[in-house]
Write a structure and sequence with these properties.
The protein has 164 residues and is of the alpha+beta class. It has two domains: 97 residues, Alpha-Beta Plaits (2-Layer Sandwich), CATH 3.30.70; 57 residues, no CATH class. Helices cover 49% and strands 14% of the residues. Helix 3 packs antiparallel against helix 4.
Amino acid sequence: MRRINFLIPTFDLTQMIVLELQQQSIPRSHLHVIANMKQPLNDLPQANIWQRSELASGLIWGTIAGAVAGLLGSLLTILLPPGGFQLGPTALLISTLAGAGIGATILGLIKGHEHNHHLNDFKHEIEHGEYLLMVDVPKSELEHVSNSILKHHPEANIKISDPH
């Protein structure tokens, strides 16, 4: 999947483009709109926390960091048992999984409140009243969808990226 980002100057035009994309068989779940707090979104498909924040990367990196910390901690305890306390291989697995869960939770909570850095390129325009329409399409449909919208709406700015 690829993400096409359209910067659109007005609500009415955004609504029109969303309808055109849906008529081209793009599911509503693949359309995500972001605007500033003053702009209406009404029935437009609003971007959710996955598109607006760094939650996904927080969960991934938290899981990795937590698993490594849990694994290293249990290996250290196995190699240098405190006060004769012995751990077996099951404890190694349990502490690695527990570390992964704790790491994912902590970094997920932190990154869930951090804005998506892929949206930095659009920050100025969004703050000044434009709408950002993010459209997730298969690679094979990328050019067709982009050209279709730009043909009918040349005022829409476009940028293509990976959705994650």
